[in-house]
Hints:
Blueprint: H1 2-18, H2 28-40, H3 44-60, H4 67-78, H5 83-96, E1 132-140, E2 149-157, E3 171-179, E4 182-191, E5 199-202, E6 215-223, E7 228-237, H6 295-307, H7 311-316, H8 326-329, E8 339-352, E9 356-367, E10 372-384, E11 387-396
Antiparallel strand pairs: 1-2, 2-5, 3-4, 3-6, 6-7, 8-9, 9-10, 10-11
Helix pairs in contact: 3-4, 3-5
Amino acid sequence: xxxxxxxxxxxxxxxxxxxxxxxxxxxxxxxxxxxxxxxxxxxxxxxxxxxxxxxxxxxxxxxxxxxxxxxxxxxxxxxxxxxxxxxxxxxxxxxxxxxxxxxxxxxxxxxxxxxxxxxxxxxxxxxxxxxxxxxxxxxxxxxxxxxxxxxxxxxxxxxxxxxxxxxxxxxxxxxxxxxxxxxxxxxxxxxxxxxxxxxxxxxxxxxxxxxxxxxxxxxxxxxxxxxxxxxxxxxxxxxxxxxxxxxxxxxxxxxxxxxxxxxxxxxxxxxxxxxxxxxxxxxxxxxxxxxxxxxxxxxxxxxxxxxxxxxxxxxxxxxxxxxxxxxxxxxxxxxxxxxxxxxxxxxxxxxxxxxxxxxxxxxxxxxxxxxxxxxxxxxxxxxxxxxxxxxxxxxxx
Length: 397
C-alpha cells in the first residue's frame, strides 16, 4: 500500500513537473500546449488578461498575413518567455499603437482566443449585432497651409443608419490606405465601444510620389464574432503640402568623401606630378593619359542625364563612393530617381590640372511632386583613364 501511494505521489509530481512555465514555439501544437500549461496556473481573471495580452501581441505585435502566419510570428516573438514577460511586452505594444489597454486593468476585450475559436458565447462581448458600417472623415491640424491629418472614424450602425450602443468589446479594426489602386499603409486598432476615436492619418506619413492626383482611397473593416463589416471611401482629397517629400539628393558637406591630397592644386606644382626618386634622372617618366575634354562638360552632361532620367549614364560619369551603388544612386524616393527635371543656370570651372578639377554649378531641381529647389554645388572631378569622373559633390550655402 505504501509503495502504491509513493508511486501515485511520484506520478503527480512528475505530471506537475512536465507542465511548462514558458512558451515553447517549436510547433503550433507545442505553442498551444505550453500556453495552456501557463494559463492553468493563473486565476480566472489572470487567465482572461493573459489571453488579452496574447491577442494584443498577435494582432498588433507581429507583421504577418493570415491566422496561421500570425501564430507562427507570435510564437517567434514570445518563444521562451514567461507570463510576466508576455504581459510586459503586451503593455509596450498597446502603448506603441495607441490602444487603451493595460495588463493591470480589469478585463476589457471580451472573449479572446488566439487559436481561432470564434464561436459566439452567451457572454461574448464581441458578438455585436449591427447591420453595417459607416465612416466619418474629418480634416484636422490646419497649420496655416492646409490640413495636416485626417481623422477616420468608423461606426457600427443599425438598419436605420443609427449608431448602435455596445461596451466592453475588443473588435479588431483595420484601416487600409490606397492611391490609384496601390496600397500605401495599413493600421490596426481595437474598437471597444461605439465612441471609438478611430484613426488619425497623418499626411506626413504618406509619400507624395505615391499619391496620384492628391487623392486617396480608404477601406475600414471591423471584425465581430459573427461577421466582418467593411466599407470604403474613394477619392478623398489630401493636402499635397503636408505629404512626405524626400529631400533632393545631396551630400552633407561634413560627410563628403574628399579626394586624396593630390586633388588639391599646388600653385608651385600645377601639373600635380611627383618627381621620381631612386630612378635614372635621364629616364623619361611614363605620361598618364590626360583628359582632353573640359571638366565642366562632364558636369553638364551629368546634370542633363539626371534631368532626362538617363540615370545609368549619369552614374557611369561618376566615381563618388558617397553615392554608393547604382541602386542607391537611382532610388526613386531617396536618390536621383526622385528628380523630374534639372534647369541648369550656370556652370564654371573653378580650378583644373591634368589630374583633378573643381566645377561650380548653379541649377534648379524639380522633384516628381513639382517641388523646385535652387542649388549651388561644387563638383570635384578626377582623371580616370583619360576621362573626367565626378568624385565628390558638395552643396554650398
